[in-house]
Design a protein that fits this description.
alpha/beta, Rossmann fold, 6-stranded parallel sheet, 10 helices, 6 strands
């Protein structure tokens, strides 16, 4: 595996937003009339894919865009930060020659505010907002604009739907186990790689970029 581009998800992958999400979920449930979640159910939700969660909460499909838009508005006022290890990880990967991009259904303003200018600038492409063809379509656009072979591009996310989108786009699927979906549930979907910690993700991606370093011009050559 030689990787030249890593496309990151935002919520649950870069941003530690799951605690905030669970704190406002029942408030949103009351507004949009779906089933509230008891504290002991949170672990169950982390085992399910997006469709199973909607079924569990009795959310009709037509409400999903309204709920998602409302959640993004709430998040614009939330105190959410990147996972502590991620800024240094991204800096190291960029220093190794790995190109970085970001694809998220969240709003660009929320992403910029959470990451800050320096970290946001690490990403050569940013695709935000709901897309007509879903996340797979946005991943394909980023891949096409990169000029790289799809085998050289990894899509990194914390949910089962991220694995599905990466596969649909023909990219390397890397799942991370510190976000919205439990690592065991991600492993059951057999991603190409599963990182349970940011350090493990760094090792996976570093192995993928070794070909870039081996082929780089040597000083004094």
């Amino acid at each position: 595996m030689t990787l030249r581009l890593a496309i990151f998800d935002f919520d649950g992958t870069l941003a530690d937003s799951f605690p905030w999400f669970t704190s406002v979920l029942n408030q949103v449930a009351a507004r949009y009339h779906f089933r509230p979640v008891a504290a002991e159910e949170v672990g169950l939700l982390r085992q399910l894919d997006a469709r199973q969660i909607l079924t569990h909460l009795a959310v009709p499909g037509w409400k999903v865009p309204l709920i998602a838009a409302h959640m993004r508005q709430l998040q614009a006022r939330a105190d959410i930060a990147p996972f502590p290890a991620l800024p240094a990880l991204l800096d190291g990967l960029a220093g190794d020659g790995l190109r970085l991009a970001l694809v998220s259904s969240n709003q660009e303003a929320n992403i910029r505010r959470t990451l800050g200018p320096a970290l946001f600038a690490r990403f050569e492409q940013v695709e935000c907002g709901a897309g007509l063809f879903g996340k797979a379509g946005r991943l394909r656009r980023v891949a096409d604009r990169s000029g790289l072979a799809k085998s050289e591009i990894a899509a990194i996310g914390d949910e089962i739907r991220d694995i599905e989108a990466a596969r649909a786009a023909g990219l390397v699927a890397i799942a991370v186990g510190w976000g919205y979906t439990a690592a065991e549930a991600l492993a059951a979907r057999a991603p190409d790689h599963l990182a349970r910690t940011p350090e493990e993700l760094g090792r996976i991606l570093s192995r993928g970029t070794r070909g870039l370093q081996d082929n780089a011009p040597q000083h004094g050559a």
